[in-house]
Amino acid sequence: MTSRSKEKVAAAFRKLFRSPEKLDNDGAGPSGSPARRGLLRRHRDGVSPAEAAASLPSSPGATSLVKKKGGAGAGEVRERAAAVRTRRLMKELKEIQRLQENRPDPIFTVELVNDNLFEWHVRLHQIDPESELAGDLRELHIPNILLHLIFPENFPFAPPFMRVIEPRIEKGFVMEGGAICMELLTPRGWASAYTVEAVVMQFAASVVKGQGRVARAPPRHSREFSRRRAEEAFRSLVKTHDKYGWVTPALSDG
C-alpha cells in the first residue's frame, strides 16, 4: 500500500470515530451550535420567575394569542405567573395584617372573600376628617367604606379591579355599579411596583378630591348596582381615556 493510500485510510478512520462533542461543535450533531444547545437546556430546565414575568402577556389579546400558539409552553408560563401572583399577594396580605395588629385605629383593614386570596374586601375606616364625605359618614353612622378588589391572573403586571360596594357614593370619581375612575387602575396607568396600600390610599384621596358624597336619595334611573355593571362602566371609561387622555392634577393638589 502506498503512503497516499495509507493517508486516505487513516482519514477515513478518523472521520468514522469522530467524537460526538466534536460533531456538536461543528454543528453536524443533533444539538447543533453551542447557542442552540444552550437554548435546549434552558427549555428543558424551565425559566426563572423573573423570566416568566418578562414573558407574561400584558393584554388580554396577547394572552389569547399565547393560548392559541403556545401549547404546553404557555401552560408553564401561566403556572409560573400564578406562583408570582400568589407570592406577591401573600406578602402584601401579611404586611397589612401586621400593620392592623400593631395599630389600634388602622386606616383600612382587609379580609378575604370566602377565603379566596385573589378576592379581597377592604374596609376604609379613615378619610380626610374635614371632608364633606367624612361628615356624611359620621351623620349616617356608617363606620367605613367597603371596597371590593379582584386580582387578575397576571397581577402584579396588571391592575386589580376595584369597586365601591357600600355606601353608594355620588361624585368622587365613583361611577355606575361602584366603578372607580382612577388612572392608577387602568393598564396604561398601572405599574407592578404599586401595592394594595398605595391603591387604597390613592382612592381615599381621590374620593375626597372629587367631592364625593354619600347618596341619600335613590338614583333617578334605577340601574343594576353590581360587579357586572361596574365592569361595563369601567371598560367604557378606559376606552374614553385611551382616546382623549387623562388630566393629571398638580402635585400641590395631591
Automatic annotation (TrEMBL):
Residues 84-247 form the UBC core domain. Residues 48-64 have a biased composition (Low complexity). SMART domains: UBCc (SM00212). It holds the Pfam family UQ_con. CDD domains: UBCc_UBE2Q. It comes from the Eukaryota. Its EC number is 2.3.2.23. The keyword Endoplasmic reticulum does not apply. Keywords: ATP-binding, Nucleotide-binding, Transferase, Ubl conjugation pathway. Residues 1-81 are annotated as: Disordered. One of its GO terms (molecular function) is ubiquitin conjugating enzyme activity. Transmembrane segments: none annotated. Probable E2 ubiquitin-protein ligase that catalyzes the covalent attachment of ubiquitin to target proteins. May facilitate the monoubiquitination and degradation of MTOR and CCNE1 through interaction with FBXW7. This is E2 ubiquitin-conjugating enzyme. It comes from Papilio machaon. The lineage of its organism: Eukaryota, Metazoa, Ecdysozoa, Arthropoda, Hexapoda.
